[in-house]
């Protein structure tokens, strides 16, 4: 049996996933732009709906790809004399997966989680300091500028990344170099932020801190 046509179709479907990923990245940037320019909460919420629609498409595509891959593997394993209807078999598997869908799947989508996380940080940076500023503007500015300093280099961050586990941010190159150095010594990396108890910082736990970068860039322009 030749599976070339099916492999080619699966490859095309996987390309579609990259378009969904790009769409989610754009929606995240737009939402952060909206917060930065103090737009209505309603506009920001509409971007969250867009993200959930993308997450739904991503889940459906994943199920479709998985259903076809499982069907092909099953046929290759069993080697039947008469080739079964692959489309029907895959459709059955796909519908079975879809029947187990829950809203939690969408909430756990990695890009959606990143969107929520960055949105929260952005709102904190742009809308969370109002009450502090009313008390003492100088204290508020000093506090926010302290968040700009990398705990490793002790300099203002240019490309901050945030640790998903403990929530602290570092300069990307500095933390990656630290992880690499400790890896060669076969040691774990303790979070360099003073007072943090997290003792195993991994590269896979780091995500770009777009919200913090925007605030730093904005401060530098002033």
TrEMBL record:
Which GO CC terms are listed, alphabetically?
nucleus; Smc5-Smc6 complex
Q: Which GO molecular function annotations are given, in alphabetical order?
A: ligase activity; SUMO ligase activity; ubiquitin-protein transferase activity; zinc ion binding
Looking up Pfam families in the UniProt record yields: zf-Nse
- The residues covered by the SP-RING-type domain are 135-221
User: Which controlled-vocabulary keywords does the entry list?
Assistant: Ligase, Metal-binding, Nucleus, Transferase, Ubl conjugation pathway, Zinc, Zinc-finger
The family classification in the record reads:
Belongs to the NSE2 family.
Identification of the protein by name: E3 SUMO-protein ligase NSE2
Q: Which gene encodes it?
A: Nsmce2
